[in-house]
Structure of Undecaprenyl-diphosphatase:
Amino acid sequence: MELLKAVILGIIEGLTEFLPVSSTGHMILVADLLNFVGERETVFEVVVQFGAVMAVFVLYFKRFISFLRFDFSKGSGLNIIHLILGMIPASIIGYLLHGFIKERLFSTTTVLIALVAGGLLMIAADRWKERTRVTAETIDDITYKQAFGIGCFQILALWSGFSRSGSTISGGIFLGTSQKAAADFTFILSVPMMLGASGVDLIQSRDVLSASDAPLFITGLIASFVVALIAVTTFINVIKRVKLTWFAYYRFVIAALFLAYYFI
């Protein structure tokens, strides 16, 4: 049964990590439904994120290799400076408020609130898009200022349930990027951010890890990797056409269903 739960949660992580619906929020809510809770289970949720990270790294491998050229000339497109600027805001806030975030922003109630709040931000971004001019049509058009600004919006993703992709794609739209350019940047930015955050969590939770848990963790990791490969490829194509508002409506429905389940 534990391996089955690992597969289910791995699928949920891979499917939702790069959709603007909050993978962490879904993981917390579903893990609670499956009674998959505790210190070890919390570490498991961190481990399966590596599967999703690996999927993005594979899909954007050539792009990551291009960063090694360290070409910062005008017109060179996206480079490692964009990534660093995008990482700075959330990295600093996450480090300074790590204890508060883990203690106060990972509960069922805060996740449900964040699902609604993130949905409202996405609806606002869609409305903004209709009356603003796009200055960055592709990921290579994104400026350093826009990269840093998107990084500032990523701070919202420290609140579980808000969604990294939802906050950063919305931020990109507010800052003048196309929806697809913001999505591409979000996926690439997620790799160093998730590796850093998950790495810190694993180091801090090393006393909880046990060799006997390896089958459970590996099962979830593989499920997350495979599903994330499919999800990212699909989402990049869908995001060109689908408004963020539809994802916001989904978030509202999920929040309402879980609210009814827990509190009614």
Remarks:
- The CA atoms of residues 25 and 160 lie 6 Å apart.
- The chain has one domain: 2-263.
- The chain is about 75% helix and 0% strand.
